Amino acid sequence: MFILFSFFLTFLLAVGDSNQTSVAVVAKPNNIYIERSDTGQHLNFDFILKNQTDEKLIINKVELSVYDEAGKLARREFYDEYGRNSLELAAAPKIEKQSAAIFYNPFHAFAADVPLKKLHYEFSFSSEDRKRYFKTEIDVAPVFYETKTDLILPVRGRVLVWDGHDYNSHHRRFDYTQENFVKSGYKTNFQRYGYDFIIVDEQGLNYKGQPRVNDDWYRARPDKMEDYYSFGEPIYAAGAGKVAFVQDTKPDDRKFNPADLGADERAYAGNYIVIDHLNGEFSWFGHIKQGSSRVKVSQTVKQGEIIAAIGAAGSSLFPHLHYELRNGGGAKEVEGLPSYFTNFKRILGSRIVNVKKGQVDTGDIIDWQNSGKK
What we know:
Blueprint: E1 13-15, E2 23-28, E3 33-37, E4 40-43, E5 46-51, E6 57-67, E7 73-80, E8 94-95, E9 99-104, E10 109-110, E11 118-127, E12 133-140, E13 143-144, E14 159-163, H1 179-184, E15 195-199, E16 234-236, E17 241-247, E18 272-276, E19 282-286, E20 300-301, E21 306-309, E22 321-326, E23 336-337, E24 341-348, E25 351-358, E26 365-368
Parallel strand pairs: 3-13
Antiparallel strand pairs: 1-12, 2-5, 3-4, 4-10, 5-9, 6-7, 6-8, 6-11, 11-12, 14-15, 14-26, 15-22, 16-21, 17-18, 17-20, 18-19, 19-22, 22-23, 24-25, 24-26
């Protein structure tokens, strides 16, 4: 079984004030996986930086050294506030005194031939007055994850991955360290490898009618759910298994009350179905249409079976299917897993590429190979 043992080594260095304690770092999740795609290798994990000093600190630099199995250096790169900035270091990010902050791994994509046996990270910090400096180091050893379940796309037709789990996606950038999530018991990113699937036309639009004048989905959205191509379209079981959870009573009103998380840790999706694949993997289908579930808890389902319809219940900008593979049926202590789909088509303009097994992500236009839809 492919399991990552993420281990961390904290090396603490304070310059200018030997009485200062320093910054600790932990890599999350515990199991860090390498995801393969046509473009190379991808890493999807975070750091929790814990400022144990009594002053606010600025993150100045993060440096990565990559080593192969022989312990030889294969790659070295960095981001800092001067020469090579990144999204994570923009605007001189600060960590409040005696507090923790999430830091999304900025070194997330590598060529297919780069060995990723050990990744050594070094973080540099300074006090606001630039008189005290600190360093923290951590080693991470990721491994490849091979999906156990045979998966097919859960939506058919011309499908756009509206938002997947790339570096900039909201699924990856879920901050589970925020106070409201911590109080609710969330400890990690359950949607780390999530997808938002929508059905689109040949122009890539997901709705009918006149073009929008802006992209403010809360003020310029169509008035009717039926204006969206996705609304009411079938959702198919991505893989065989047993139904673990079902909720389909919430209205398709695109509303979510965070207080509902106290009673149901999956409430952010409004309506949902969770399928246990009986191998440690669970498929999660969110924002299903009110009253559309065709399955019940404990029911056995076959791959490709229609289980519900696409809706817009819960935290949803518009009708879409949120799908992901996880290592559990809940959300509070559950982590996402890389998922590879079989027998689908990549739509590359006038060219169609048949894929036997592969990964999809933000911006991809795809279709199930045998759907028969254009």
